[in-house]
Amino acid sequence: GLGLMIGIEFDFPISDLRKKLLFDEKIFTGYSGTNTLRLLPPLCIKGREIDQFIYSMNRVLKMEE
Questions:
Q1: Distances from the Cα of 6 to the Cαs of 31, 37, 50, 63, 65, in angstroms?
Q2: Is 26's pLDDT higher than 80?
Q3: Among residues 52, 56, 16, 60, which one has the least CA distance to residue 34?
Q4: Per residue, what are the HEC states of 14-46?
Q5: 7: number of CA atoms within 13 Å, CB side?
Q6: Which of 3, 16, 41, 48 has a CA-to-CA distance to 56 between 20 and 30 Å?
C-alpha cells in the first residue's frame, strides 16, 4: 500500500489530455475532479521512468496548443 500520490492541477479540463497520454504515450493516469491529473507511481520508480513521463507530458501538452 505504500506509494506516491501527485496531483497536477490545470486551468482546463484534462479529459483529452488523459486520453492522449493513454492512447498515444501508453501512460495511465487518474483524475480528481475536472482539472486535476493524479499520478500514483510506485516507490520503486526510477529516474528514467520519471524522465519518460516528463517527455511524454511535454509532447502531449504541445499537441493541446
A1: 10, 8, 12, 23, 24
A2: yes
A3: 16
A4: CHHHHHHHHHHHCCCCEEECCCEEEECCCCCCC
A5: 7
A6: 3
> Apex CA 50: angle with CA 49 and CA 52, to 5°?
65
Confidence of residue 2 (pLDDT cuts 50, 70, 90): low
Euclidean distance between CA atoms 63 and 46, whole angstroms: 26
Q: What is the DSSP letter of 3?
A: -
The pLDDT, as a whole number, for residue 3 is 73
Rounded Cα gap, residues 28 and 26, in angstroms: 7
